[in-house]
Amino acid sequence: MVRRLGDLEDAVMTRVWDWNRPVTVREVLEDLQQERSIAYTTVMTVMDNLYQKGWLRREAEGRAYRYEAVSNRAAYSAALMNEAWSVSDNPAAALVAFFGMMSAEQREALRDAIRVVQLDGPGDGPGTPGR
């Protein structure tokens, strides 16, 4: 079961995902402090919690750690969507309602994604008979 990130967890993960490199607590803290007043120990605790939950991996660097995302935001979003869809008592109706909420750009992205999945499905690819 995927749990939605809390506000501060999301703020931390957004920076880690956007920067796409190993980061220190200090780097995240300094960036967060541009928006809000926050203590080093708070950011350290949040990042340790994200490590414990499996969202971040870390490597010791001196007396501190460098943290890196285990997966990307797209994978997180997909897991949330899958979780929401899987608990529906009527998955088809949930999808229809979801599609109805989409903007034109989102529907086009969905069409593109379906084309990619169809092209990369089982049995497709080089060496496949009939290709």
TrEMBL record:
Record keywords, A-Z: DNA-binding, Transcription, Transcription regulation
InterPro entries in the cross-refs: BlaI_family (IPR005650), WH-like_DNA-bd_sf (IPR036388), WH_DNA-bd_sf (IPR036390)
GO terms, biological process: negative regulation of DNA-templated transcription
GO molecular function: DNA binding
Keyword check for Disulfide bond: no
Family named by the database record: Belongs to the BlaI transcriptional regulatory family.
Protein name as it appears in the record: BlaI/MecI/CopY family transcriptional regulator
Organism of provenance: Streptomyces klenkii
Organism taxonomic ancestry: Bacteria, Bacillati, Actinomycetota, Actinomycetes, Kitasatosporales
